[in-house]
Amino acid sequence: MNLNQITLPVRDMPLAAAFYRRLGCLQIVDTPHYARFECPQGESSFSLSLDEGEFHNGAVIYFECQDLDRRVAMLQEKGVEFAQLPEDMRWLWREAVLYDPSGNKIKLYWAGENRLNPPWRVERSG
C-alpha cells in the first residue's frame, strides 16, 4: 500500500496555491475549487480543496528536506514567515514550523535514518 495524497482545506485558493508554489511545489491541477501539486523531490503529491465554511484542520503536513536550514533561509528571503526556525527535537528530527494562509500547520524537517528507524522502533502487524 502506498499513500496517494493528502488534501488540505483552504479558504482562498489563489492565495493558497501561490503559497505552495513559493515553497517549491509544482502545481499540476488548477481549478477554482481544487488544486494539486507534485513535491519537488520523490513521487509524492498533495492537493488543496476550497472550503468556504469555518474549519479547523488539526492535521500537520510534513515535507522532508535534507537541506533544511538552507531551504528555510531561502524561503525567508522569499518572504515566507516561520513560527519556529529549524530546531533539533527530542525525537531526533530537526524541524521548522510554518502555517499556510488558511492556517494549516506545516513542518519542514530532516530526520535521516531516524524517520523510519528510530531507536525505539517496533514492528507490529495483523
Question: What's the β-strand tally?
Answer: 8
Classify the secondary structure makeup into a structural class.
alpha/beta
* Largest sheet report: 4 strands, mixed
What percent of residues adopt helix (DSSP H or I)? 10-25%
How large, in whole angstroms, is the Cα Rg?
15 Å
Regions with little confidence, pLDDT below 50 for 5+ residues: none
State mean pLDDT (0 to 100 scale): 94
Overall 3D form: globular
How would you write the strand order of the largest sheet? Answer: 1-4-3-2
Cα distance spanning the termini: 15 Å
Domain VOC: 2-111
Protein name: VOC family protein
Organism: Microbulbifer harenosus
Question: How would you describe this protein?
Answer:
This protein has 126 residues and is α/β, with parallel strands linked by helices. It has helices spanning 13-22, 68-77; strands spanning 7-10, 26-30, 34-38, 45-50, 60-64, 84-88, 94-99, 105-110. The strands form two sheets. Strands 1-4-3-2 form a four-stranded mixed beta sheet, covered by helices on one side. Strands 5-8-7-6 form a four-stranded mixed beta sheet, with helices on one face. The protein is globular.
